[in-house]
Structures are given as C-alpha cells and as structure tokens.
Design goal:
With about 55 residues, the chain is mostly helical. The protein has one domain. Helices cover about 95% and strands about 0% of the residues. The chain contains two helices and no strands. The two termini are about 15 Å apart.
Length: about 55
C-alpha cells in the first residue's frame, strides 16, 4: 500500500509542476501548440503510470 501511495504522491507533484509550467508557457506564448504539447506530455505520464502499476 505504501508503494502505491508514493506513486500517487509523486504523480501529484509531477502534475502540479506540469500545470505550473503549462500556465507559464500559455501566458508567455499564448499559443494552441502549448495545449497540444501539454496533452501529449499528460498522455506519456499516464502511459508511464500504467506500466508502473503492472510491475
């Protein structure tokens, strides 16, 4: 159980950092590409988490 809680904790940290970065990039560039790249990164993180759960 502790290992799973650690994964959730790290995921929250990663998501919060990515959200802050995405907000900064959106403010600076104000571009649709930012949303596209952000969704791609979220997809990669999601797939990575699925692989971690299987192991």
């Amino acid at each position: 159980m502790e290992n799973n809680d650690e994964h959730i904790f790290y995921n929250l940290i990663i998501l919060s950092i990515l959200t802050i970065v995405a907000i900064i990039f959106t403010e600076v560039l104000n571009n649709v590409k930012v949303i596209y790249y952000y969704s791609v990164i979220l997809g990669i993180v999601y797939i990575f988490n699925l692989k971690l759960r299987k192991n």
